[in-house]
Design goal:
- It is a single chain.
- The chain is globular and about 45 Å long.
- By secondary structure, it is an alpha+beta fold.
- It folds into two domains: 63 residues; 86 residues, no CATH class.
C-alpha cells in the first residue's frame, strides 16, 4: 500500500529525532515506544502516554491510504520501495492480520481493551475526521455516492475514491482535515464520545 487518507507522525520532539517501534497494545491499538527514553506513544494522536516524555506530542500531517495500482495511474514513474521483513516478522504479521480479515481480534487484543462503545459494531470500517475538538466518524456504508456535510462552519464533502475505493474528506476550498480510514473500535477508543455522522452529538 502507498500512503495518502490518514495521519502521519514526525519522529521529532523539540528538534531531536527519536527512533520508534511497536512497544505493546492498549485498547487493541499499537503503542509506540522510543529507543531513547522508552516513553510510550499513541500512534494516532502522537501523544506521549507514559514515561520520561509524558505529555509531549509529535506533529501530525495528513497522509492517504491508496493502492499501488491507483498510485501508478497518477504517477506512472513512481518508485516503489519495500523493506524485506525477517521470516518471524512476516509470520507474526500474518497471524495478526488473519483474524481481522475474518472480523475478529487477534489473540491477546481483547485483554488490552476497556469498555467498548456499542453505538456501532466494533469492526465497522469508516472514515474518522478530526478538526479541533470535533471528532466525527463516517461509516463507509453511509457514504455511498458521497456526503455533503459541515464541519466547524465549513462545507465538507466525504466520498469514496473510485480508483482505490478509499474514502476521503475534503473541504470546499480544497484543503483536507486530519482523517483516518479505520475501524470503529480504534477511533472510538482513541476519541471517546466522538460523533457519528447522522446521529446526535455524544460526549463523555
Amino acid at each position: 500500500m502507498v500512503c495518502n487518507s490518514g495521519v502521519g507522525l514526525t519522529p521529532c520532539i523539540d528538534d531531536k529525532v527519536y527512533h520508534f517501534s511497536a512497544g505493546g497494545l492498549y485498547n487493541g491499538l499499537v503503542l509506540l515506544i522510543d529507543d531513547e527514553t522508552h516513553t510510550y506513544w499513541d500512534h494516532i494522536t502522537g501523544e506521549a502516554l507514559y514515561g520520561t516524555l509524558l505529555k509531549a506530542k509529535m506533529d501530525l500531517w495528513g497522509i492517504q491510504i491508496t493502492t499501488v495500482k491507483a498510485a501508478l495511474q497518477t504517477y506512472p514513474n513512481l518508485l516503489l520501495l519495500r523493506s524485506k521483513q525477517a521470516l518471524f516478522a512476516r509470520m507474526t504479521s500474518w497471524i495478526m492480520s488473519f483474524p481481522f480479515a475474518k472480523g475478529k481480534f487477534p489473540p491477546g487484543f481483547r485483554k488490552t481493551m476497556g469498555e467498548k462503545d456499542n453505538r456501532l459494531p466494533e469492526m465497522e470500517i469508516g472514515l474518522g475526521v478530526i478538526e479541533g475538538e470535533i471528532k466525527r466518524f463516517y461509516p463507509v456504508a453511509k457514504i455511498g455516492e458521497g456526503i455533503d456535510d459541515e464541519l466547524k462552519g465549513q462545507p465538507i464533502k466525504v466520498q469514496i475514491n473510485k480508483t482505490d475505493s478509499v474514502p476521503f474528506a475534503q473541504f470546499s476550498n480544497g484543503t483536507r482535515p486530519v482523517q483516518l480510514f479505520t475501524r470503529w473500535y480504534g477511533f472510538s477508543y482513541t476519541f471517546p464520545g466522538c460523533e457519528i455522522y447522522g446521529e446526535l452529538k455524544f460526549r463523555t
